Amino acid sequence: MTKKRRERGICELYQEDPEKADYEIFGRVANPDRRGFLKKAGLATMGAAIGASIPLHQNMPSGLIPSALADSLENFEIKGKDGLTVLNDRPVNAETPPHLLNDDVTPNSRHFVRNNGTVPEMAHKMDASGWTLTVDGEVNKPLTLTLDDLRKNFEVVKLKLQIECGGNGRAAFNPPAKGNQWTLGAIGNAEWTGIRYKDLLEAAGLKSNAVYTAHYSMDGHLSGNPDKLPISRGVPVSKALEPHSIIAFEMNGEPIPTMHGFPVRTICPGWPGSTSQKWLRRIQIRDQIHDGPKMTGTSYRVPGYNVAPGTKVPKKDFQIIESMPVKSLITSHQTGISISSDRMEVAGHAWAGDNSVKDVHVSMDFGATWVKASLSSAPNRYSWQRWRAKLRFPAKGYYEVWARATDSEGVMQPFSINWNPKGYLNNSMHRIAVTVV
Ligand SMILES: Nc1nc2c(c(=O)[nH]1)N[C@H]1C(S)=C(S)[C@@H](COP(=O)(O)O)O[C@H]1N2
Ligand SMILES: [Mo]
User: Fold this and answer.
1) How far is CA 428 from the centre of its chain?
2) Tens digits of per-residue pLDDT, 32-47?
3) Which pick of 27, 112, 229, 387 has the fewest CB atoms within 10 Å?
């Protein structure tokens, strides 16, 4: 069956012609081929969805896919992706259901995608001719390098590095936070090939007043205005100088795919994914904290203190997110499974930003008691770590398996979220439903 690829974002469709958009979007649900959807969402949802208009459509965030369709996204497929849940098609944002993240190294087909703007032409064409990387600003020797220069003039390293979006888990916030409603799957741990960020900065020679990096890319602003950037973030020079911060040109042994930043991106592992700038073209070294789009205000920032849900926090109290918190996922089984045995080996991954993971514990009795999981050390710093635990259920019936990681500083995942206005850093523990039949 050939699938038609949609060319425009939903928001755009609604702005042009809401009725036609309803037909295009909701009308397709009526397609009798979609039995999978019918079974899953239930007939009641269907009835509400078919042919209904959306009176408040003007409030729909840009590109939002109506949740009535959330389980039925064949029309929103992203080339090269397998089983991802698309949250937004303009810009493209898609997450990976946890049970599809069981590989120690996340394949390209299963790595989440988070775009803030439009993908540059060069990445669609996968042709880097004419591309250069400029390093300038507070350096003694500004550089302009081709992809070949990067490969030939520097030591090439391969590292397994986890990238997690700062907003992963946002969907659980109440009151809700604006932005992509990520559930659990805005996390991936691919093997990246590239050069050390540090070696590049040493070649350029940092001046003594170098404070922060500024990353500039080739992606376009959603408005179409060529003078606007969708995102330009950076990191303190000290983070860029860490041996695991890299300028990558391969993902799992292939040129970086279109959606993940071809030809070159930064990876600043353990920090919000937004510091791993895709489609890179320039690194400017600054003598102050970078103030590009998505560096200021409330973007990738949280209040410097805990706040009660719904609190209005003054802008001046927001601080830039640096290390991401300790977190884990159960990836061996899909939530909702039924098993016929009373035994289960459950497994997953755990990671902890700049720290390592010290322990993972698992509970099958709603947190009353915890079993210590076996935990592998990371193949390299900033890779996630594999954990496994054996459970034996006392009787038939419904259980929840909970996983809880503790980092090398003794900090544990909470049961529920620490609320913040923009819905960042939700590291509450992952639970899956298991029924023993
Ligand atoms: N140029 C550019 N780089 C970017 C982004 C972007 O929109 N444009 N998104 C950032 C964000 S918010 C995240 S979480 C990661 C996601 O990387 P991925 O799409 O490869 O998973 O890329 C980051 N780098
Ligand atoms: Mo992100």
Assistant:
1) 16
2) 333 333 223 333 333 4
3) 27
